[in-house]
Design brief:
This protein is of the alpha/beta class. It has two domains: about 140 residues, Rossmann fold; about 100 residues, GAF domain (Beta-Lactamase, 2-Layer Sandwich). Helix content is about 35%, strand content about 25%. Strands 2-3-1-4-5-6 form a six-stranded mixed β-sheet, with helices on both faces. Strands 8-7-11-10-9 form a five-stranded antiparallel β-sheet, with helices on both faces. Strand 2 and strand 3 form a beta hairpin. It is elongated, with a radius of gyration of 24 Å.
């Protein structure tokens, strides 16, 4: 693509805004048809969402799209053509974004002018995308609806991930504090504060560690209906699911996330602990 001076453009030249100062939603249009780029920008011209404008960048092949995403972590949405340099290049890009780039935040809307190459049902089931549209059905209203819903989803995912990263920092800091305080009293405080940070009732929270001289797992601190288990073996809780989650966390020595719970691994000098959080418990 060329600008008014005849210079070749591959990507929009704008630099990423500093974190916390972003005043726009960054959208990448990936399509080998220059007219689609122009029509998309025209259809979304003047749109603002939550007092933030739309910023557009451009790629004309799957390879360019991946290169751009590697270099720009602030892209919220990619409008991705299925058929570019190959019949399934868009599908391969969608898979690589999730699996190779490890980017689970950017929202992916696939667009195609040739739906026969990639049937909708197969694509939706087999690829981690957020929407799949034929170009003929994307009038301004439908395009705007798809873009706005994707951007709101992106914001929710970002909020969840930032909260998770913040919580993991707190859990890692807790290991150092555990070395400096009475471990039982401190553990009880950990589970209560974790509940408060997560907006949960202080129920179903458990802090445990492996006993130094054996594989036995000891309850260090608990809240709610688990409180009676403090300073007793985890098996006394008599909950196979919690036992499995905690054992897996300690064995793998990493944070684990499940649909109904999260288990945070805490390690300090001579300490291996797991904080179990029942995420199904919510305040009334």
């Amino acid at each position: 693509m060329q600008d008014d001076n005849g210079d070749t453009l591959i990507f929009a030249p704008e630099e990423d805004a500093p974190k916390g100062e972003r005043k726009y939603w960054h959208i990448l249009i990936a399509d080998d048809d220059e007219e689609i780029h122009a029509v998309t920008k025209l259809a979304l011209a003047g749109v603002e969402l939550d007092h933030r404008t739309l910023k557009f960048s451009h790629a004309y092949s799957g390879e360019q799209a991946l290169q751009f995403l590697q270099a720009h972590s602030d892209v919220a949405l990619i409008l991705l053509d299925v058929v570019m340099e190959s019949e399934d290049s868009g599908l391969q890009v969608a898979r690589q974004i999730r699996e190779e780039l490890g980017n689970d935040e950017v929202r992916i809307v696939l667009r195609t002018g040739q739906p026969g190459y990639a049937p909708e049902e197969r694509v939706i089931l087999n690829y981690d995308i957020n929407d799949y549209k034929t170009k003929t059905e994307l009038n301004r209203v439908k395009l705007l609806t798809s873009v706005v819903s994707s951007l709101r989803s992106y914001q929710q995912i970002r909020t969840i991930n930032e909260s998770r990263r913040g919580l993991e920092k707190i859990v890692n800091a807790a290991a150092n504090l555990m070395e400096r305080h009475n471990i039982y009293n401190f553990s009880e405080g950990v589970v209560t504060q974790l509940a408060s940070l997560l907006g949960l009732n202080p129920e179903g929270l458990l802090c445990v560690r492996q006993h130094v001289d054996s594989e036995e797992i000891l309850v260090l601190g608990a809240a709610g209906h688990y409180a009676k288990g403090i300073q007793r073996p985890l098996g006394a809780i008599n909950d196979a699911k919690i036992m499995r989650y905690v054992k897996d966390c300690l064995a793998q020595q990493q944070h684990l996330y499940f649909d109904d719970a999260s288990v945070f691994f805490i390690q300090g000098k001579g300490i291996k602990a797991a904080a179990y959080i029942d995420s199904s418990q919510r305040p009334c």
